[in-house]
Amino acid sequence: MVKKQSLMDVTDVIVIGGGSSGLMAAGTAAQHGAQVLVLEKNAVLGKKLSITGGGRCNITNDKRDFKQFLEHFPQSKKYLYSAFAQYAVDETFNFFEQDMKLPLETQARKRTFPASQRATDVRNTMVNFCKQHNVSFKLSTTVTKLTATDDGWVVKTNNGNFTCHKLIISTGGYAAPETGSTGDGFKWLSDLGHTIAKPSPSIVPLKTNTTWVHSLSGTSWDYLKLRFYADGVKKIQKTGKVLFTHFGISGPLVLNSSYDVSQLLSWGSVECSLDLFPDTPAEILSKRIANLLQKNVKKDFGNTMTEIFPKSIIEVLSELSAIPTDIKSGEITRDQRNTLVALLKDMRFPITGTMGLDRAVIADGGVDLSEINFKTMQSKVNPNLYIIGDLLNINRPSGGFSLQMCWTTGYIAGVHSAM
Ligand SMILES: Cc1cc2nc3c(=O)[nH]c(=O)nc-3n(C[C@H](O)[C@H](O)[C@H](O)COP(=O)(O)OP(=O)(O)OC[C@H]3O[C@@H](n4cnc5c(N)ncnc54)[C@H](O)[C@@H]3O)c2cc1C
Q1: What architecture does CATH give domain 282-347?
Q2: CA of 73 to the centre of ligand 1 (A)
Q3: Using CA atoms, how far apart are residues 394 and 386, in angstroms rounded to an integer?
Q4: Which partner for 418 in 34, 105, 292, 333 could form a disulfide, CB atoms 3.0-4.6 Å apart?
């Protein structure tokens, strides 16, 4: 970028928000020759990035064919195509492993993490990338107002005003507001003429008021079938791992169903059903349990069941089936066994809601995608303005898809803002 003498106090590119997408954009713009300033309201950079993936950071999903990768973005893939054709999973691997010397490791379901399993290593890598290319930072600096000028922007903050030719907004969405993303960008962008779809939690744990579910808090069941019923009709069915919490259920399977469940909840009541033995038909399960009880006739039911279940689940099963844990296994009747089997195949409880934006991993909603040029990440509504990351109205599953979207949109905004 050519700098005019009279505009020496005007920064080439200002990035508002030093999170995942902002750091990628800032480092890339500086790498491509721009003078770059990041304004971040927190005292630290990449606060959300440091807690991603339960502290391990699911950095991407190892689907190298970007068209296959975009199959996970059914509503937005037609927009994202031109961005991902420039920068996708291969480029992310090259960036972290070759350029930044951060080895990656791909685990189940192609989820990729830093080999160190530390999200803070990813945060530090992004900060180092920016530092290597002389990006300047103003921390504890909250942007309050944006004003367009003839050839750029004036950015008002609690630390004074800053001017720039190109402005990248990467202030994130509403999910996990304690990390700094409190939706500030949506307000400015709406005032600047962008259409903003109302954000709602889309990857979020589910709540129930059923006490036996709460009592299982901390227990996880690695392989079960999860079904959701709306007004008694089965609407969603998935198989995988569920984590019980003190408010309801969580884990990847639940998180990835939560968007659809919240849609069902907006229409009426929703019930969840757990099948703890999804691959075993009821008759075979009944025979297995009969054999187990037969082998342990003199043992208490509760003790016999420890061969299959953790103690917390046995207590719940005993309560729901009304079979006391201290009854001898040999005394259990056929009816009681049938009740138990029916329960194991269909443990039901109502879903009363989602955990809301505070506990959400992703909130959908945001800037209307038709208002962005995805070849450059430039706003079609305002000149010299780039919009990236969670600000965009892109619904997607968990599994590294969000951060890849941030690396891609950040990289493209970085390259094009520096031109
Ligand atoms: C608990 C949790 C775990 C997650 N785990 C994963 C995972 O493993 N893999 C994955 O792909 N995705 C994960 N995600 C989603 C992923 O973290 C986000 O999609 C991503 O961080 C969004 O990046 P961003 O740059 O858009 O916004 P953020 O990373 O949210 O950054 C926005 C930044 O802007 C700053 N800011 C906001 N307003 C202002 C203002 N007025 N002035 C100055 N600065 C401001 C904020 O302080 C913040 O630092 C997770 C999310 C959460 C909440």
Answers
A1: Orthogonal Bundle (1.10)
A2: 19
A3: 16
A4: 34
